[in-house]
Amino acid sequence: MSAGCSSCCSSQDAPVVDKTYRRILWFSLVVNLGMFFIEIIAGAMGNSLALTADAVDFFSDGANYAITLIVLGMSLQARSKAALFKGICMGAVGAYVLFVSVSHIINGTVPRAEVMGVIGFMALITNVVVALLLFRHRSGDANRQSIWICSRNDAIGNIAVMLAGAGVWVSQTGWPDIVVGLGIAGLGLWGAAQIIARSLAEMRLSDQNV
């Protein structure tokens, strides 16, 4: 490996902490945990798998932001390990939603469409604001990429929750809610696979440069 490349890797291993990025992460952490409590209650009251899935996703994102704040400024190896952990957690969230969906399918649960619509819209506004704030910080290591993927997935999921609410209202069945819940789970599993693959690659690169 050339000296120039070694120098480049060394500079990446000790990043300068962006204070603006840190403030955005703190804001994102607070609003995500707030929306977790709102959606977990609304999901229970409205019997909605999609809202419950989105609530768990909000909690996962809150943990994601907290871990990122802890490892900011640490070595590439430490940041990559944190990203790997977050990817595994995202995968676990997706698996949990798949498990819960079985109960809704068996019981034929019909959620409250109006609750899904209102809370889904609140969640969408929250995630669009966070996604816009994080957009310029989406490039970089696996840790930063994981933050952007979470925010992007959340905004997509919230739009889907609102569409599911409309579908429940029109069809008077719980199937739109179940389909969207499963979609959110699939999106989480796909995002987890991306983050895990990227973090493992960075860990191998970091080991080679030791």
Automatic annotation (TrEMBL):
Domain of life: Bacteria
Organism: Terasakiella brassicae
Annotated keywords: Ion transport, Membrane, Transmembrane, Transmembrane helix, Transport, Zinc, Zinc transport
Alphabetical list of PANTHER family matching this protein: CATION EFFLUX PROTEIN/ ZINC TRANSPORTER, RE54080P-RELATED
One term of GO molecular function: zinc ion transmembrane transporter activity
Taxon lineage: Bacteria, Pseudomonadati, Pseudomonadota, Alphaproteobacteria, Rhodospirillales
Pfam family, any one: Cation_efflux
Main localization (coarse): membrane
Entry protein name: Cation efflux protein transmembrane domain-containing protein
